[in-house]
Amino acid sequence: MQAERDQLARISAGDAAAFGQWASSVESSLRQTLRPFATLCDTEAVLQEALLRVWQVAPRFVHDGRPNALLRFAVTTTRNVALSELRKTNPTPTEVEALHRALDAQGEVQPLAPDPKLRAAISKCREKLPPQPGQALAKRLEGTGDDHALAAALRMSLNTFLQNVTRARKFLAECLKKAGVDLDLELSP
Amino acid sequence: MTPEDALLVERVVSAHRERGADGAVKSHPNWHDLDAEGRQAAFDETVRQRAVERGLDLDGQSSTIKAVLARLR
Questions:
Q1: Which of A34, A83, B22, B56 has its CA 20 to 30 A from that of A51?
Q2: ipTM score of the complex?
Q3: Cβ A141–B63 below 8 Å, yes or no?
Q4: Contact A143 B63 (CB under 8 A)
């Protein structure tokens, strides 16, 4: 609990690196809470917006003394952003009801600890990637660029770039499977 | 899924998102071009992709986290 409070103090003081560390530890859990919204709104945009709002509120956030205080706040924020996006699409009452049932069924969200075995297996598989898919995947990892710009930087057409990213992901999934790692199983909530 | 739809899914899996005039993170334009099957596929592929990205990055940061941190600067 003290480590969590120390991390929160750093985030509240504007330490972006501490925020990045915390956000990395909760990203997967927060994304899983958005699964019921997968066909209703762009959950990637929702998640980024929610994390930005958590960062903005962090200086005023007060720990309630229970574990994972900031994560619980982030779960609420994420759902609120998603529900706000959903309202813009005029959902049917049936859709809203099904959504609330799915959200009610979600248990308490926990941060996920990094899995060193998974990390090692992914690194090994990356070394075996063919050159072009490897370059495309590495560009995507940079995170901030638009696909047109990333493709141009690699002197690839947009479609070739996208096909190479897909090939890289399929190659890694196959390689991991051969190494006995089932990504879907590892990531199941 | 058609090859065209697969390319749309791939674009949506990207963490790149524009910001609106109000500063909010905007949906990917191609997300709206996908049907329910494509949207679900984009979600599932994003879950897998970000896990791989965390495993590949020295700091364990996915492209989502890098995109968010870039907005703080």
A1: B56
A2: 0.97
A3: yes
A4: yes
Q: Hey, is the C-beta of B6 within 8 angstroms of any chain A C-beta?
A: yes
pLDDT computed for residue A40 by the predictor: 93
Q: Which residues contact A101 (CB under 8 A, 6 or more apart)?
A: none
Half-sphere exposure (CA, 13 Å, Cβ side) for A185? 7
**What DSSP assignment string belongs to A97-131?**
HHHHHHHHT-----PPPP-HHHHHHHHHHHHTS-H
Q: What is the pLDDT of residues A2-58, one digit of tens each?
A: 888 999 999 999 999 999 999 999 999 999 999 999 999 999 999 999 999 999 999
What is the Cα–Cα distance from A162 to A2, expressed in whole angstroms? 44
Direct distance between the N- and C-terminal alpha carbons of chain A, in angstroms, rounded to an integer: 24
Tokens of B43: 């979600």
